[in-house]
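ok trying this again, last paste got cut off
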Amino acid sequence: MGGLAGGTTAQAAPVAEEAASGAAAAGGDWLHTKGNKIVDANGDEVWLTGANWFGFNASERVFHGLWSGNITGITKSMADRGINMVRVPISTQLLLEWKNGQATVPSGVNNHANPEIAGKTSLEVFDFWLSLCEQYGIKVMLDVHSAEADNSGHNYPVWWKGAITSEQFYAAWEWVTARYKADDTLVAMDIKNEPHGKANEATRAKWDGSTDQDNFKYACETAGKRILAINPNVLVLCEGIEVYPKAGVSWTSTTPADYHSTWWGGNLRGVRDHPVDLGANSD
């Protein structure tokens, strides 16, 4: 994961690009940003200790490990170890399947080990797990890890692919935000995992002031504004990219030496020149 913009929003990992602040909903256990800190509804700073649980993004369409481990026991074990935030990678394809009523029963669940979710669809498993997280005091961050349901989908550099368009990417975020807008267990949305791509690669993510499809800054703003229009209390995270042009260099250059390079999603140099603006909900 690369960066963040906060929400009631937060900041990007490893650097925070501020987004949406404001009071949490009355009676809600939401988080929001205050300066460079994440705080609760009372304004008290919150310390988040996180883990990732892979699988909803993959072809199995469910948490990996449930082929042998028990979902309740695994979730409790995370809480017992002090984990209070779990990031859940998911695919746009799966979100759209859920949106369209096409959730299926995943084959990656051992029913003997998981009698509590035997026969449940992937969406029903996710909902059951959210109830476990509420029970054990764990907050959840959803992360679009790839466009397609693909175990290696995170290798693809951008948020659209094949039949999955940028507009569908936004629509998927809107749908999932609306579905869980009253559930203060799901408090954070990581817009896209590790946008990347090198200068000499045909498909890559850039960061500038344009509305081009490959401008992740624009994609993050567009998705973030649509999310916050539905739930202004949720945190919005915006990662970085991989390369950013050196002074005086245009994005049209395909020469690697013309760019500052770092890891996937980790390059936030563009924020200084082109900060993320989430509109009325920006901090």
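PB: full thing came through this time. The CA atoms of residues 32 and 233 lie 7 Å apart.
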